[in-house]
Structures are given as C-alpha cells and as structure tokens.
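User: I'm putting together a small comparison set for a docking exercise, and I want a reference complex before I start. The sequence is below, and the ligand is magnesium ion. Could you produce the 3D structure with the ligand included, as structure tokens?
Assistant: Of course. I'll restate your input first, then give the structure tokens for the complex.
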Amino acid sequence: MIYVLNKKDSCGDTLLRHINHLCALRYGLCFCGQSSLTGLAPLEAVLFDIDGTLCDSDPLHYYAFREMLLEIGFNGGVPISEEFFIDTVAGKHNDDIALVLFPGDLERGLKFVDDKEAMFRRLAAEQLKPLNGLDKVRKWIENHGLKRAAVTNAPRANAELMISILGLSDFFDAVIIGGECEHAKPHPDPYLKGLEALKASKDHTFVFEDSVSGIKAGVAAGMPVIGLATRNPENLLMEAKPAFLIKDYEDPKLWAALEELDKATSARSV
Ligand SMILES: [Mg+2]
C-alpha cells in the first residue's frame, strides 16, 4: 500500500501527493498536517499583528518593563523574569497589564504603562528590526494584489512608529488598534474590524500572529492563523490552535503552504 502511494508517475509525482492535492482543493485539508490554507482560495487579504509578528519587539518591551519596574521596587526589587513577562504582558492590552501589575491602583498602573510605552518608542527608534523574510512575504502579497491590514493591541503611537520604521506605511490599507475597539484581543473584535475595514471575507483571509492572545483572537474571528514562534514557547502557542507554526517568514513550511494555496487558486479559476 505504502509502495503504491509513493510510486511516482511520469511527472515524478506520487499517488499520495495527488490525493493530498485533491483533498486540499476540495476540503481545504492536507494530510501532511502542514496547511489548512488551501480552503481560502482565492485568497483576498492577509492580516498582521505587529509586535513579535512584523518585528522582534518583545525584547525591547521586556527591557522597558524590567528596568522601569525595578526603578519603583516592584517585586521587592527583584527584576521580573522573562517567564513573568510572557505570562503577564506579551500580547496583552495595556489596560489589562495595568490591572495585573497595580491591582489596587489602576490610575497609577495606566500612567506606568504610558511611561513604559514612551520608553519603548525611544528604544524602537534605535533598535527595531524586521523579522527575517518580512520583505519576501510583503512582495508576495503585493504581487498577488491582496488587501492587508495591521491589527494590534499596541497603542496607535507605537503601531504607527513601528510600521514607519519598518518602511510599511504605504503597505497597509488599514491599521486597527485593539484599544479603539469595543474589546481588545483575545476578543475577536479587532480582527473583525480589520476584515470590515478591508471589505474582505473571513473565508478568504488568514492572519499572522505571535502570541497566545493574538492567535485566539484570529481563530475566534473565524480565520486560520499562522503562528510565529518568535519568542513565545511553541507548546503554549499550539494551545491557541494556530493552523501551523513557523519560525519566521523564511520558514519553508510557510512557502510550501503558499505554493499549495496558489495551486488551489489556479485550479479553481480553470
Ligand atoms: Mg504580538
């Protein structure tokens, strides 16, 4: 049986590959477990989170939180650990972070996170770098004429600064801010608003995200989410049910999935 499935035809393709391809076209499924993107054909739009997804900004956020919390003697003067940062801060909205860090004094918490964002912007202006392969995926999206939006829990000043530093100001058709929606991520609101701004269907759109909170938001909005394992542990990200995880935009898994999606689109237009 295995021999038959793996026997190559005159074009060098195996029967297993043909079955995979047919199933992918018909059901948006892939037996290899690699991609559930083919069901989106023809693709219409791509939505991106910003922090940790367009750029590896979490080390800058972690540094700013750690130094500023140390300055005020938080945690008895012991610097916060990276685990604490991942559990309490990464991908979350500032109002929620303020509540957790300063449970008895929300006003102080909100002022603290505002000051921390100002420190982050100073660091970002000097040190922010795009994620590996971002330029390649940007070109792929432009060449395919797809709509695109950034959807983030970051404050607007941060979001616009990062997009500008990365040279993507003209790339995005819309920038959706979690704090300007009724609910921020992990609620689906920001992603639903992104679809609405682009006039795109959830059935023909996928999301790039790097945090548990963000993946949950994209999945709850009804879209497949490609998880970027930039900083957050893979086992934690998998709990939020991404379509699959990649290391960065150079990851062959991503390009294999996009190639399958292209084939599915061509097959449907015949
Ligand atoms: Mg993120």
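The chain has two domains: 44-55+129-251, 58-127. The chain is about 50% helix and 10% strand.
User: Thanks, that's exactly what I needed.
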